[in-house]
Structures are given as C-alpha cells and as structure tokens.
Amino acid sequence: MYSLIHFRCFFRQFILISLALFTVSKHSYSQAVPDYPDVSYGPEERQWLNIYTAPSVTPTPVFIYSHSNGATADNISAAIIDDLKAAGISTVSWESLLNLATPNDVATSWNDAELMLAWVKSNANTYNFDVSKLIVGGSSRGTVASWKLAHSNDPAIRGLYMYNALPDQVWSFPETWIPTNDVTESSPPLCFVYNVSPMDPTDVHDPDNGFTIVDRYEELDRADRVTLIHSIGTSGDTDRFQFLVDFALTSIGREPGLNYTFTYEDGIARVSWDTMIGRKYQIQRSIDLKVWDDLVMVSGDNRSVMRQEINSNESSFYRIQFLFDQ
C-alpha cells in the first residue's frame, strides 16, 4: 500500500498541497490544456467535455466541473488542474447550454448532467477514473446545472464544491423549482465559497442564498456536512478554488498526510517529516506531473528526518510515497 504527499516549488515560492489542512494559494489565471479535449458525451452539439487526467497506476477520483454563464467548459485554470493532478485527482469539465436563462434551460442542463455522468461512468476504464469517488462542482450557472445531480443520492458523489452558488435569479421561479427541496439526509458534504459578503446589492451571488441551504442541512441534523465561506473578494486570495483540493481529499476519505514541513529558499528545497518503523519513504521529483524521478528512499525509524536538494527549475513538484511493510 502507499499514499502520497505533494509539494510544488514555483519561482522561489512554495505551495503545499496537503492531505489534511486547507491551503491558501494564489493563482494567476492561465487556461488549462485538456489531455482529452472536446469529447462528446451525447448526440447534441452542446454535449461535450474536456478531460484532465491525473497520472496514476491506479484509478483516480474525479472532480466534475460546470462553468458559469459567459464561460465555456474550456475555462478552467491551469493552476487548479495542476494542483488536482498533484493530489491524484482527475477533472472533467462539461458543457451544456452556455447560458441558463429560463426554467426550461435549467431542466435541459439537468438532463445533460445525468447523461454526462452516465458517460463518465461507462468510460471509466478508458480514462482511469475511480467513479466511486466523485466530487461535483460548479461556478454560478454551473451550480444550478449540477444541483439535481449533486443531490441525486448517488453514493459515488462524495462531496460538492460550489462557488457563487444559486444566484438570485434561481429563486424567482418557486412554482417550478426550490433548491432546498432537493437537499436530503443523504446529501453529500458541501463547501460553498462566495466572492462577496451577504446582502451585497452589487452582486446577485448573495451568500444568503447559500445560508438557506446551510439551514436545510441543519434542519436535517447534517450541519457537520456543510461549510460556507464568503467575502473572499476582499481577502488576500480571491481564488475560487483555494479550498478545493483539501475539501476533495477529505471528502473521498484520503488518508491524512505526513506530519511534515517544506521550504524553498535560495534555490534549495528542504522537506522534513516524522517517520514510523515499518514504513519506507520514497522522495520523487517531477517537472510536468507525468514523469517522476526517484531521489532517495528512506527507512522509517520513529524519528524525524530531513532531506534537501539544490533546485534551479522554475517549477518543480515533489512527492513522498510511503510504503507499508506487508
């Protein structure tokens, strides 16, 4: 058996991608390039998706993402895709109607979501997906398109990560849909992230809409399954995905990581961690998250160890695999 912990050096800065703690990382936007672009999941022209595969010898969990109005399935940042890949999570960014303006549009997107997920499950072997471990996510429009799927009681859906969820317009058609009605005792863990503070008159993405869902979770005695974070637009980090990796890892039940520290200073990468007797620790490095070079193998002895290396690359990724003696 093995588990992973990953580190990334970038321009003398570092981003820790941990398995237990929320990490704040500041990403400038650069659009991700899919490993498998423009793949059809249905017969209609709108029914396509992009796939970003995490390199792994075993099937990987999948983050299923739906974009906001005015964007397309191509619009997802390279930084979050890299972070998800480093954590061993693949991504599917899927398309439906580009904009949702009417209840009929919303219903169409819900039907597309069902078709898309069926396609993902039926093609799991082709793309090395672990379809028993899915995280459903979206931004604004994407939270609407994903909502029925997210609360479909599918046990494979382990968590929901939603940014600027359920904008004001959603609540204008109570005769056709009330989002709280979809929340049940079986609804997955949910993380809401909002850009503004509650009742901001300049933005239709009111966190109070999310708090309405939080209240529903609490009514069902599921308060421990829902988190709402707002006002990131006035924080030091406006990245909508800043909590995604750790939320996803927690939701899929990934084993907590090592007790470690990692620094990168003056061209030297240093990592130290506590070891255990009966485990071996393989440190690896990659430039592209595809090919990993072995650096050193360490045997555990219940003491803390430290390793360092000179690194002048603009971007490098490090990981520790720890192996359990059988």
Report on this model:
- With 326 residues, the protein is of the alpha/beta class.
- 20% of the residues lie in helices and 33% in strands.
- It has 6 helices and 16 strands.
- The protein has an 8-stranded mixed sheet with strand order 3-4-6-5-7-8-9-10, sandwiched between helices.
- α2 (103-122) crosses α4.
- Mean pLDDT is 84; it is low at 1-27.
**Multimerization state:** single chain
What fraction of the residues are assigned to beta strands by DSSP? Answer: 25-35%
Q: What is the residue-averaged pLDDT?
A: 84
For the record, give the distance between the C-alpha atoms at the N and C termini, rounded to a whole number: 8 Å
Radius of gyration: 20 Å
Number of strands: 16
- The SSE order reads EEEEEHEHHEHEEHEHEEEEEE
Low-confidence stretches: 1-27
Helices and strands: which structural class? alpha/beta
SSE arrangement:
Blueprint lengths: L1 E9 L2 E5 L18 E5 L7 E5 L7 E7 L11 H9 L3 E5 L8 H20 L1 H4 L1 E11 L1 H10 L6 E7 L26 E4 L13 H13 L6 E4 L14 H8 L8 E6 L2 E7 L4 E8 L6 E7 L4 E7 L4 E10 L2
Helix pairs in contact: 2-4
List keywords for this structure.
five-stranded antiparallel sheet, 6 helices, alpha/beta, eight-stranded mixed sheet, 20% helix, 326 residues
